[in-house]
Amino acid sequence: MQHYTTEQKLAVVQASPKAVAEHDRRAWLALFADYNIVEDPVGSRPHISGVFDRRDGRRGKGPLGRFYDSFIAPNTIRFDVRRDIVNGDTVIRDLNIEITMSKRVVVSVPMHLSYQLCEQGGELKISRLAAHWEILPMVIQACSFGLDSLSTMTKMGIRLLRNMGFSGMCGFMSGVRGIGHNGKVLVDELFSALNSQNANHLQLLVDSEQSGPCFIGADGVAMSSSHFVLKHPGRFSVDKVLCSGYSCSASFEYHDGERSLPGVMIAECCRHTGKITAARFYVDNAE
After folding, report:
1. Element (H, E) at 170
2. Residue 250 lies in domain
3. Do residues 155 and 222 share a domain?
4. Which pLDDT belongs to residue 285?
5. Helix or strand or coil: residue 254?
6. Which of 239, 23, 33 is nearest to 116 (CA)?
7. Residues 60 and 47: beta-carbon distance below 8 Å
8. The domain boundary residue, chosen from 175, 207, 227
9. Are residues 28 and 165 both part of a single domain?
10. Separation of alpha carbons 178 and 195, rounded Å
11. Residue 256: CATH number of its domain
12. How far apart, in whole angstroms, are the C-alpha atoms of residue 183 and residue 249?
């Protein structure tokens, strides 16, 4: 992956909303590796392609195609990208998307997208797409348009049943479950501990079963709580926090003297304890 430039990595990611806007199913599917995972939203049942697919009866991109047919094809989706961050083989997008589900039903969804890239056949492909967004606020928006909402949501339910079956529809809705408000409290405590240089408090937020360092910088190196605090003597300001499944993501600015670096933090949490098992900090212009 080292021989690909930042511009080449961004080009792959930027091709996705282009294909979505043009409703070009073939072009969108072609962006993904043969084996790929889509978690949209994170916390719902993932769509895994490249293994034997019982509904299609073959190994291929059947699950990815059904995802497109269920959530992309019937809607008009506009991406309002605030920032792209390239760290290694991962591209993070900090954005809002506007989904026009019908003439009157339009929803705005704050989101963090994580694209993991790989090389296949001499080309860059997407091997994993993880979309961090919150289902419940989106559903509340979509249900606020009276009879138009009833018609639109009914059609959506029928479409999910047809494309994904009852189990698949339940798998999507399982994304409602997760760490929720407690995750936002956890993120607030995490950044408070960093800003106060309190490594002991930071360590208390880590799951006790976690072995080894779990705070990962933009260079991909995992660090202990104390090491991470020492490496970040500046101050973090946070302006968007999302909890999706048992993951939390946050947009931040890191201020250290005259430097101000924007970034996104993604933390994975244990379902049983609600504490951190890994926290990755992606920082703009890190390469």
Report:
1. helix 147-173
2. 180-283
3. no
4. 67
5. strand
6. 33
7. no
8. 175
9. yes
10. 27
11. 3.10.450.50
12. 9
Q: Kindly state the tokens that stand for 137.
A: 């606020």
Is residue 1 in a domain?
no
Interstrand relation of 259-269 and 247-256 (parallel, antiparallel or unpaired): antiparallel
Q: Residue 236: which of 187, 279, 180, 277 has the closest Cα?
A: 187
Same domain, 131 and 197: no
Which residue in 103, 190, 101 sits closest to 141, CA to CA?
101
Nearest to 88 by CA among 259, 248, 282: 282
Q: Among residues 80, 72, 84, 94, which one has the least CA distance to residue 19?
A: 72
Contact 220, 279 (CB under 8 A): no
Strand 276-283 relative to strand 52-53, pairing: unpaired
| CA dist., res. 49 & res. 275, Å (int) | 30
Phi, psi (rounded to 5 degrees) for 251: -85, 135
Which amino acid is residue 190, in one-letter code? L
* Residue indicated by tokens 């890191």: 254
The pair phi, psi for residue 159, each rounded to 5°, is -65, -45
37 within 8 A of 129, measured Cβ to Cβ: yes
Per the DSSP assignment, residues forming a β-bridge with 282 are 264
The structure's pTM equals: 0.94
- Identify the residue whose tokens are 């049943």: 161
Q: Using one digit for the tens of pLDDT, what is the confidence trace for 181-233? A: 999 999 999 999 999 999 999 999 999 898 889 999 988 899 999 999 999 99
Residue 137 falls inside a structural domain: yes
